[in-house]
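Open question from group meeting: does this chain pack into something compact, or does most of it stay loose? Before anyone orders reagents, we agreed to write out a predicted structure and look at it together. Recording both the input and the output here so the notebook holds the full record.
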Amino acid sequence: MAESIVINEINIRSADRSNKDIATWRGALRAAESTANPSRTHLYDLYDEVLLDGHLTGVIAKKINAVLNKELYFEKNGERIAAMDDLIHSQPFRTVVQTIVETLLWGVSAIEFVPGPQLAVHTLPRKHIRPEKGLITWEQGGNDGIAYKDRNNIWVLGTENDLGLLLKCAPYVLYKRGCLADWAQFIEVFGQPVRIIRYDSYDDQTRAELNRILNESGSSLSLMLPRQADFEVLDGKQTNSDGGLQLSFIKALNEEISVTVLGNTETTNSSHSAGYAQSKIHQEQQNEISKADIAWTTALLNSAQFMTILNSYGYAVTGGRFAFRKDMDVAYLQQRIAIDRELATHIGIPDSYWQYTYGIPTGGR
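Structure tokens returned:
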């Protein structure tokens, strides 16, 4: 791994923080899916913007932490290799694991491994990754750069056509922003008393004096109307007097975000109708998503490319594999063991089955 440091050669630009709306999302999606010259630049700028949403941040953290907080170890021939624990617990290795999970959100990621005696990494800006061309470009969205398939120290994750889960979450966040702005305006207009003053239309001196009084007596909404004028506000307050319409819409959008990222709602938001059985079902659904994330992470950690990279740092990984500790669902196993005991009276069940199913260390039963 004698190549130069790519992160120092590319021109990194700030994220575009201009106002975003559904039309922006549509245009960015069309640019990313273009068959002639696909570019993810505008789409990933949009992703950076929607990630400022608090609810989306929370569910993403839950998805990532479900993998990061799970015990990971390295084994050979079924035996745990304790010498690899320091590597697994190091910050660079955790960055690798987190980037692997984040790839599910973004669609593509790239990690540069810095030559040296110990594992060191840089995550490359996703706007510079052109998977359809196999390039890390000098400029975001450019067509010239470094062919990463020729570089042993650059690991690109994801597939060419995958735009990630954030593609589906972005519209919900954009709609929620608009709804929050409308709700804030609703509160500003109808959340405090309205002052109405009527004056004779021909009395300009009185009008000027009343205007001065209103300006000096606070900032709440005020109206000055000629006595001869009729005035009526059709505001919908009778059907939305407390802003419940906006609140229900925001809750619906948050639920869509939770389902998109976690596969459920009840592990993040609790509803009034939620009971133990419903919450248990939702937790099981999230567990299935987490199992899939763990399987995805395990497959990439054990890929030939990552093993070659670790070998280049001097780690003895040949013939071994990374594995996550298997969690035991006690309630499930209590039901399972009754069936297994009955089967054992009719057919022979190998020791390996008991060890794997019930988490028994090798050599015990």
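Observations to bring back to the group:
The chain has two domains: 1-193+240-327, 330-365.
The mean pLDDT is 85.
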